[in-house]
Design a protein that fits this description.
The complex is a heterodimer of chains A (about 425) and B (about 230). Chain A has about 425 residues and is of the alpha+beta class. Helix content of chain A is about 55%, strand content about 15%. Chain A is elongated, with a radius of gyration of 32 Å. Chain A starts with a helix and ends with a helix. By secondary structure, chain B is α/β, with parallel strands linked by helices. Chain B is about 35% helix and about 25% strand. Chain B contains seven helices and ten strands. In chain B, strands 6-7-8-3-9-10 form a six-stranded mixed sheet, with helices on both faces. Chain B has a four-stranded antiparallel sheet with strand order 2-1-4-5, covered by helices on one side. In chain B, strand 1 and strand 2 form a beta hairpin. The chains are: A alpha+beta (about 425), B alpha/beta (about 230). Chains A and B meet through helix 1, helix 14, helix 15 and helix 17 of A and helix 2 and helix 3 of B.
Chain lengths: ~425, ~230
């Protein structure tokens, strides 16, 4: 193998300029792959971490996933019966036996649970009305299932207990209403209950829908506001291992019957978009590498064409077809490897260059720069793909070289 | 150095015919035996099948009929890899064109078959290659690229490469075709020495009657058939 490597190196070095062009083509493909992946994955990772940070990992709701089975369908399971327009059952009394379920969930290893009553309300301050979702919480338990405390810019979650009818709202919502900390606003529920609530805290999650349309109050206060005393319509869970969310959600739903959604299910639309984004990214960068692979095919084909006599003599010396094939395959792989190494360096430089770019306006992330993911696995993936593409590109000319008949070549040269 | 009566010849062709798929017959019904220590010239007019016979004897080509035996072993039974291994270890080729790899020095060119065979470690392989270059008067050319050498020197490096794995048989196809008279004579001097001093068998295709006369035996072909086989001086 060492001999084949030396021969390959000599042949590539002889065509230095062609080799450099091919290597640079691969390097550009790898570098763009790495830089674009850093951009996309950086944004996606930030987005997902925000979701995981802000939203509960699992939400148990007071509804059924499917409508209850109908008598006609049960009576004629094999019959041609079609029942349309059946709606899943809504439990106006909220989650049944919420306290017992809560206790069972809290007993699970690595699971924190908190009861919640969510409901709509109109916040009124002066002449301004804004429709919001009020989340009624138990501050102690809720602190274990959400990062709301971390996102608070003014006040603390415990202040809900210290103040009668306390309310925590997003900074963006406070701005829309024109209120600040300590101001009192009117909250009107769809049932017509009106409460005077005092702003005891402000938060900023970076997610506009939350910052502009959500508020937190004590569970008891929201139950009064929504006129649903003792009702809990959600149990929110936070897991130590976030990857367990989906299977655990399925398990809980099977056990309790209540519709249970993991964070993945709740954000399926976004995650699907990410899958499509990734597919587009990999296709585009894959195409760049494919073009680079054609460059390698070109150089190996040229070398094979120019080295016909050398191939003949090597075969007459006792090199086998496999040796010859390996010799040219190695050249493709060496070019691919050099391109991959150079591409990794270029990619790292491009990422650092992108990191210096400033937008001049603050993004929701609180930074005015790109969010970049620096993941060594992307380097490995890009390099692996480049070497594989280079190897495949070299296979065809290498096979052609191995099948050359030395007698024909020697006769032609004589 | 000749084979004893009981020993198989170093190389034998038994009723060998080579016909191309298009139906052209290159050599027909040739039977020849080559003993150790023979210096054989294959002569004949252009197109008489001299080179075709040499490629068959050198296991670069396979006969369509008949068989080639190397040291008593029927080569028809061997696959391509086994034939390649045999060429590497037992045969040495010299062609009209030197076919040295242009990107490597003389020393590296001679080292290629030695390294491919892999019997010697790096130091021993280098010593062997240097010794061969030295015996052919090429010490100073060891580090030079082929393009820096004269035609005669390149052909001598090619001979050194053919000798790299200490083969019993050297096959040369018009090795002096591109050389002037002086260099051609020098190449034949080397072949004579290989036969006389080292007991190797050298089979050389040539159309130069003066050089052919320096061999011990001459096989003359016409239209792919042997028309005479006897002492070269005759």
């Amino acid at each position: 193998m060492r001999l084949l490597l030396d021969l390959a190196r000599g042949m590539l070095a002889r065509r230095r300029r062609q080799t450099l062009v091919s290597v640079f083509g691969v390097a550009l493909g790898v570098a763009f792959f790495i830089a674009i992946a850093a951009l996309m994955r950086g944004f996606q990772t930030y987005f997902i971490s925000q979701i995981i940070d802000v939203a509960p990992h699992i939400t148990i709701k007071d509804e059924m996933r499917d409508p209850p089975p109908q008598a006609a369908a049960l009576a004629h399971p094999e019959g041609a019966v079609a029942i349309a327009g059946v709606r899943p059952q809504d439990r106006v009394r909220g989650i049944r036996a919420a306290g017992d379920k809560l206790a069972m969930l809290e007993a699970m290893e690595g699971v924190a649970a908190a009861p919640v009553l969510t409901g709509q309300a109109l916040l009124r301050y002066g002449s301004r009305d804004v429709s919001v979702t009020i989340v009624g919480i138990d501050p102690v338990r809720h602190a274990r299932v959400s990062n709301i405390q971390k996102d608070m810019t003014h006040g603390r979650i415990e202040d809900l207990r210290a103040t009668a009818n306390g309310l925590i709202i997003g900074e963006a919502l406070a701005q829309r209403l024109g209120v600040g900390l300590g101001d009192t606003i009117a909250a009107v529920s769809p049932r017509g209950v009106t409460l005077s609530m005092k702003v005891v805290g402000l938060f900023r999650t970076g997610i506009q829908t939350l910052d502009q349309q959500q508020g937190y109050a004590l569970l008891k206060v929201n139950q009064v506001l929504q006129d649903r005393s003792n009702v809990v319509n959600q149990i929110q869970l936070r897991l130590r291992d976030v990857t367990r969310a989906e299977p655990l959600a399925r398990e809980i739903e099977a056990r309790f019957g209540d519709r249970t959604e993991s964070w993945e299910e709740q954000n399926k639309n976004f995650l699907t978009v990410f899958v499509i984004q990734n597919a587009v990214m990999y296709s585009v960068t894959g195409a760049i590498l494919l073009v680079a692979a054609f460059g390698i095919y070109n150089i190996i084909s040229t070398v094979v064409y120019e080295k016909t006599r050398d191939i003949a003599i090597l075969k007459s010396l006792g090199f086998t077809e496999r040796d010859i094939q390996m010799l040219f395959l190695v050249q493709g792989i060496v070019a691919g490897l050099l391109g991959a190494v150079l591409g990794c360096v270029l990619g790292a430089v491009m990422i650092e260059g992108l990191a210096q770019v400033r937008f001049g306006v603050e993004a929701p992330s609180g930074s005015d720069r790109f969010i970049l993911a620096r993941d060594w696995r992307v380097y490995l993936l890009a390099s692996g793909f480049a070497v594989l593409a280079a190897g495949i590109a070299a296979v065809i000319p290498a096979r052609r070289a191995s099948r050359l008949d030395p007698v024909q070549v020697v006769r032609g040269a004589a | 150095m000749s084979d004893g009566p009981a020993d198989p010849p170093l190389l034998a062709a038994e009723r060998v015919t080579r016909t191309l798929p298009e139906g052209v017959t290159l050599v027909a019904d040739i039977s020849l035996r080559f003993a150790r220590g023979e210096f054989v010239a294959i002569t004949g007019p252009s197109g008489s099948g001299k080179s075709s016979l040499l490629y068959l004897l050198g296991l670069l080509d396979r006969p369509t009929e008949g068989r080639i035996l190397l040291e008593g072993r029927d080569t028809a039974e061997l696959d391509a890899e086994e034939l390649a291994a045999l060429r590497l270890a037992r045969l040495g080729f010299v062609f009209q064109f030197h076919f040295l790899l242009p990107e490597f020095s003389s020393l590296d060119n001679v080292l290629i078959p030695i390294r491919r065979l892999g019997r010697l470690d790096a130091a021993a392989a280098r010593a062997q290659a240097m010794r061969l270059l030295g015996t052919l008067g090429l010490d100073a050319a060891a580090t030079k690229l082929p393009e820096q050498l004269s035609g005669g020197m390149r052909q001598r490096v090619a001979i050194a490469r053919a000798l790299a794995n200490d083969p019993a048989l050297i096959l040369a196809d018009e090795p002096t075709g591109n050389l002037d008279t002086k260099n051609a004579a020098a190449v034949f001097d080397i072949f004579e020495r290989l036969v006389r001093e080292e007991g190797r068998t050298v089979i050389v295709v040539t159309h130069d009657p003066d050089l052919a006369r320096r061999c011990s035996r001459r096989v003359h072909l016409v239209d792919g058939r042997v028309v005479s086989d006897g002492p070269a001086s005759g």
